[in-house]
Amino acid sequence: xxxxxxxxxxxxxxxxxxxxxxxxxxxxxxxxxxxxxxxxxxxxxxxxxxxxxxxxxxxxxxxxxxxxxxxxxxxxxxxxxxxxxxxxxxxxxxxxxxxxxxxxxxxxxxxxxxxxxxxxxxxxxxxxxxxxxxxxxxxxxxxxxxxxxxxxxxxxxxxxxxxxxxxxxxxxxxxxxxxxxxxxxxxxxxxxxxxxxxxxxxxxxxxxxxxxxxxxxxxxxxxxxxxxxxxxxxxxxxxxxxxxxxxxxxxxxxxxxxxxxxxxxxxxxxxxxxxxxxxxxxxxxxxxxxxxxxxxxxxxxxxxxxxxxxxxxxxxxxxxxxxxxxxxxxxxxxxxxxxxxxxxxxxxxxxxxxxxxxxxxxxxxxxxxxxxxxxxxxxxxxxxxxxxxxxxxxxxxxxxxxxxxxxxxxxxxxxxxxxxxxxxxxxxxxxxxxxxxxxxxxxxxxxxxxxxxxxxxxxxxxxxxxxxxxxxxxxxxxxxxxxxxxxxxxxxxxxxxxxxxxxxxxxxxxxxxxxxxxxxxxxxxxxxxxxxxxxxxxxxxxxxxxxxxxxxxxxxxxxxxxxxxxxxxxxxxxxxxxxxxxxxxxxxxxxxxxxxxxxxxxxxxxxxxxxxxxxxxxxxxxxxxxxxxxxxxxxxxxxxxxxxxxxxxxxx
Length: 652
Fold this sequence. Notes:
Keywords: Hydrolase, Protease, Serine protease
EC number: 3.4.-.-
Strand order of the largest sheet: 31-32-34-33-35-36-37-38
Protein name: S9 family peptidase
Number of helices: 12
Largest sheet: 8 strands, mixed
Distance between the termini: 20 Å
Structural class: alpha+beta
InterPro entries: 6-blade_b-propeller_TolB-like, AB_hydrolase_fold, Peptidase_S9_cat, WD40
Helix content: 10-25%
Number of strands: 38
Radius of gyration: 25 Å
Pfam families: PD40 (PF07676), Peptidase_S9 (PF00326)
Shape: globular
């Protein structure tokens, strides 16, 4: 796989299923337009697929309960700021799609009411005179000419979105069927106020209310806690229906009225490295209901990125992170802190379930593997049956096999990871690639980074050291107040295990990573420089003291992971040890990174150069923290080119 082959990374989105109608939004990077293109595809339950829409930016299909209509988002048609996504509806039997919204900043994915007539969705509404809207004088100021922002809270911005409190996310309910028959677009008024964000709408089974996630106490002060709040669908006063003791996400109702949602508990005072669990509550109108946790807090970590839970036949389907896999499991609706081994397996192995849906007895999922970026499968008693072949072009690039590695750290702790070896006899130069997070997992899905480097002749070592997700909550919390300790031991132990192979060259080893992986790269380069020939540190945390105030999440992340003692912040900062780095060192960053802000790279580069190190600084304009995963396709290719050029100089 070469850098430009990222165009072959075709990824289907969370499927929508009703009867024999199965839809998914298929997305891929497009170098010519320098954008990510997506269109809806219809997948046959017997196999094969056909075009449903032409895109170029269609997403989030939702099929009405009666199967008559398909709602989805379409962007790039000139409506809204920069063609923001707007709600469209088309007949499920086929035909033309009709746009139903014209919101300046676009809309989020629509959700059908039980009556198959109304849609609920959320959308950000900006203050007048911002983001290209008219001010009180009828002018549309450019971003640099907007009025100053008055900031009184910590939570005023977030990476990859931008400023928040001047464009709050509001709840809308739209009579879609009436709008389809109208000549003009409907006049939309939000049913939630401008005082707080709402998110993730879910209709009650009677269609009378919409439940959304709201910051606790209606966001009156900064909080990491959430409540579930019900709004009357026709407008009116909201009611807290579930008061959570932590974070809540993606509520969904079963037909019997049980409300299921994902959540993290902060009752022990920890707000980081928390396993996500499945919760249930029975709501009424007499005050908040008490929720119960259906899954074990230590062994079950739900992957909420795979979409909401799906109640079906007395069970609740969820995706669960487990040792690099994302498995599809069934949780009994009556469970109480069920451990992972007690959850029925629907799909496991070397797989990553990216989305799933069910209708009646039919269950479908989008599944990635070491050879695929995602295909649609149907799960039945005979086992998973693959319906699509979206990764054929990717496999034709000559993917290298992924080999599992296991070893132990110096203290006897088990370490798990993978090795990707290039073609040829070797001995091959080696790259130790460390993932970000840290509470995330390197997984079994095809990884473009490893494949590009292996195609260029490098063996790639990957893994999940302590601090990662997917191995139990205790594993994830093992480095709380201990960055740069046992996680380093695990990173190096896995590398040593790989280097036992005679076809790997222990004299030509480089280390690289982004975000937390960038921290680890900077830290190891200063504390174990003899192990590596060079380092590539990307979007890294290098100085905890300034991270507190400059990062969008720094005001709590640093306290919870590192602490508040200035001496500890200094001691745990790679910047403190910049003068000890004696190997060539690449500092790589994006100008618009608000998660690990640009100053983290600037300070490190200056410190390295002042200490006489062989350091370079590569800066990407217009990108945020997610450059390597979802940045502009041409920047992603340019980044790969730069990585390969760097290692060709230092590991040749």
